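Hi, can you check this record?
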Amino acid sequence: MEVQTRVDVFEDIFLVFLALGALVGIVVIAYTLYNAYKYRDSGDRKAAEDAPTLGELPTGGSGGKKLFLSFGLSAIIVISLVVWTYGMLLYVEDGPDQNPEDGIEMEVEGWAFGWDFFYENGVETSGEMVVPADTPVWLEVTSTDVWHTFGISDLRVKADAIPGEVDETWFMAEEPGEHTAECFELCGFGHSDMDATVEVLPPEEFDAWMDEQLTMEITLEDENEERVTDGFELELEHENNDEFDEDLQFTYSDNEFENGSITIDEIEQGGPYELVITADDYEDVEDSISFTGPVDETYELVDPDAEDEDEEDEEDEEDEDDDANDEDEDGGDDE
């Protein structure tokens, strides 16, 4: 089923009103000129001629049938136009009648003075919205501080961003390109610069961009900045794993790493992840990763034996210093 964009709807309304307005204007002007010519004062008008006299309400001829017909046609046209326009505006308000899973959903959060975008798969961007072309985009708009209004003029979309409330709207861009999202509510000294880039990509390029956002590269090194290549295991688990239908827990062994590094691109849900690295010869590493965009992290694995040796060396050095101090004190007493 072909989906009309908001731009298409408003263009259709504009063209229909323009065509009807032009038609009515032509008819009225033509009829006015016709009557001006027909009832022109030629000086030889006959008394029996059907013409209105000064101060008399014209009947329109034939007992007012013409007048009744003109009022009737006008009423039918106006009512039909109102009903049709109302139906089109309902479509703009409710969106296309299709499964929302066929589009993408995201939250838009306004703040003084910028915009943040949260995709349903956990990816987050700030100051830039990236969407696929020819795909409905469903928005839930809110604010973290004061009243704002999110709008993209080129795509005929606008929604209030009010703290504590959510305003739902949608749009669809037919062609790839770049647009600007702006704030249309005076919200402070930075209002005029409160904008964001809206980049519309072909669907295949959007999928590639999204895959890039959900890419995690992990590198393991020892204290000498040399790659650790074996004897370890990496575990990742989403902090809200219980809230999802699929299991968001992943385990990677050392043989899946290449020279101590691994690129993980199989995870389709972003968000906060707990990372645990267990190793045979090193201390365990625990960390929390905010996987809302591309991640590139390097972790240093610490050898506990090396730490013990360092502590022993430090103790030996302290003992030597103490002995030296004692000798100095004894020498001073002899003097």
Summary: Helices lie at 6-38, 65-94, 203-213, 304-334.
